[in-house]
Predict the 3D structure of the following.
Amino acid sequence: MNVDIGKVCEIARKAGAAIMDIYDGDHAIEMKDDKSPLTAADKASHNMIVAGLEAHFPDIPILSEEGADIPYSERKNWTHFWLVDPLDGTKEFIKRNGEFTVNIALIGNNSPVMGVVYVPAQDKLYYGTADEGAFVRKGEESPVPIHVRKADPEAGLTVVMSRSHPSPELEDYLKNIKIAEALPVGSSLKLCVVAEGRADLYPRLGPTMEWDTAAGHAVVEAAGGQLNTPEGQPLRYNKENLLNPHFVVESGA
């Protein structure tokens, strides 16, 4: 499937601009049915992304966090589709720490084949495909190739984790790993930090949804890294239940 990733990057940046218009002003917050926050920025970004993808790629269906009520009976036969999180890190947005992202992934046969992660507050764009590798672009600067780094377990690993306190499961997982540094990061930026060689390991032993991980998953793999379940199985997308299992991101270098 011939998809111009430059168009997808452009759509992500436009969605990010819509988010920043709201971020720089007052923003209204609602609560979703699952009690997670929904802001006007989520809605603005969703509308911008859907309009852009439908205009440029009308034959590819879209599954977005803000439009995730498509029946499995309809989507189970999709061979390719867009998987979108219009604003990943809503809590980071509300806290105004800048660590929120726009995530757009192309899924092919249940695996991510293209990913774009845009950080609006930093005007920073991560993107990648298996064929072309992974890149980061800051503002209007030229794109720079990124690659995972070679881990040194004896010297200690840099581990990415959420800003909340580690769960008992995570503490148990890490107890036999020598940690040189723990790096607290928000949203799907955690995957991008591994992709660009700033960290070695990101274990996620708590709940995430498919749209939380797909774009970052594609970038990590394009950069030479791996994302699997703790048992070593790859994450699959477009399941009937869109909840991810636990997973571990490793540099794999």
Q: What stands out?
A: The domain at 5-146 is CATH 3.30.540.10 (Fructose-1,6-Bisphosphatase; Chain A, domain 1).
